[in-house]
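Reminder to self: keep the SMILES exactly as supplied, no canonicalising. Ligand is magnesium ion.
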Amino acid sequence: MLDFHPPIATFGGNCPTTNWSLPPSFPRIRMAPRFQDFVEEARLSARALLDYGEGFFNPTVRLGVTGLSRAGKTVFITALIHGLTRGGRFPVFESYASGRIAQALLTPQPDDAVPRFDYENHVTTLIEQRRWPNSTVDISELRLVIDYQRQNGADSTLTLDIVDYPGEWLLDLPLLNKSYEQWSAESLALSREPLRAKLASPWHEHLTTLDAAGREDEQAARAAAKLFTDYLRACRDERFAMSLLPPGRFLMPGNLAGSPALTFAPLDVAADGTAPDGSLWAMMRRRYEAYKDVVVRPFFRDHFARLDRQVVLVDALAAFNAGPEALHDLEAALAGILDCFRIGQRTLFSNLFRPRIDRILFAATKADHLHHSSHDRLEAVLRRAVAKAADRAEYAGATIDIVALAAVRATREAMVARGRDKLPSLLGTPAPGEVANGETFDGEAEVATFPGDLPDDPEELFKGTFRGLSSAAADKADYRFLRFRPPKLEREGNEEPALPHIRLDRALQFLIGDRLL
Ligand SMILES: Nc1nc2c(ncn2[C@@H]2O[C@H](COP(=O)(O)OP(=O)(O)OP(=O)(O)O)[C@@H](O)[C@H]2O)c(=O)[nH]1
Ligand SMILES: [Mg+2]
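Structure tokens returned for the bound complex:
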């Protein structure tokens, strides 16, 4: 019965090892390593050596907060820092609950060229204005230094570096392993699937007018890039909530808007073909490679490859809202992204030359939209969605956990009488403009909603029989989630109130608990 948040982002490609909804006959090609790949490895190792040197004297965890667009990364980071620095309620976070953490302080971040995470502003927005922070448009970083007492009584310090970035950027990582031809063929195959084909038809029409082997043509490239971007944007609409649709900067161009590195699109060419010199195809291919060099590789090298712990935030509820296609798409996008993690047990060698992620937490966010009796089911859906990737990660030696959480709990639970029955319901303030049962909310009134239950067996959802917004009117959809405002908090004296949450402490315990023993 509700209306859900802006949808998660969209994209269309993955690492070559991943299997998603492409036709079985589709060629899968692994690119031969290029000279540049070796250079890239050398750079990664150099960076790892630097980090290792620093971390040797100053124990550090670089925590990657990963998730597709609107998954809840910025809210998660803000709530985590707020809780650690301002006395959050974290009974399951052992070092904190037992009083061994003396203080957690924000300190200047390590990378001078990266903007600082706008923590103070995000807190004001959440607590004073009761609004959610805006969507992230650029990378930012924050360093938290935790002074604690070890279990043996000695005083110690752990540095926690956290990186925030727009979810769309994540969608680009799988491109690193793909040639232009392969990405083109995959993007086209995906865009021909029934739901997407409708949204892609203006771009498909234009594509039939292009001669890939003909002379390069700037106007044709611009028109193709525009129509392709329109298609990606349409897929991201809340009604479809598609996840698979790179390149991410097409949806979030920033200062690269209009540059050649963003002026390309897939062509209908053979996945193992070769572009003739001077052709439109060669031009598109060149720009695609430029995009990877200018945009994707630096992000991977400077941020992603340096992480040693990951929390992967997943907004499964947005996919339930949109329909089975969105759930399938989300599953495929996660598989593609997880293929790009460098996972495994940390060893001296890997610390020195190939940083590895040794712990991954998969978290289904916004669990406060469901009654607690459905939280286990939400976890079961996420477990099913990431099963293959999680198995691989565990096989490589990483520790995995799965949790349903809400970084900021916007609702309370209550039993509300309906006739003779008492129904488990959620109380919250719907955001202004939200609509349910014909009523438009003003952003002030608190209402009780009956969110309904997730099925006992997650397979029910993956069978694809439920109805979402992509195929049904809002009042006929099986799942609708109202967007609530952040909670109203009571101040006690001058103290800033703690933000309520669901299982944020369990997430912290898993992510850094073992480094605070
Ligand atoms: N009720 C509730 N809503 C949440 C929570 N976390 C996030 N949201 C909702 O999800 C939206 C997106 O959250 P963000 O933290 O901005 O998501 P993000 O992953 O940083 O998104 P991008 O910056 O666009 O990549 C918010 O505007 C809220 O509407 C939560 O814990 N509870
Ligand atoms: Mg964000």
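Points to follow up:
The chain has a mean pLDDT of 85.
The chain has 17 helices and twelve strands.
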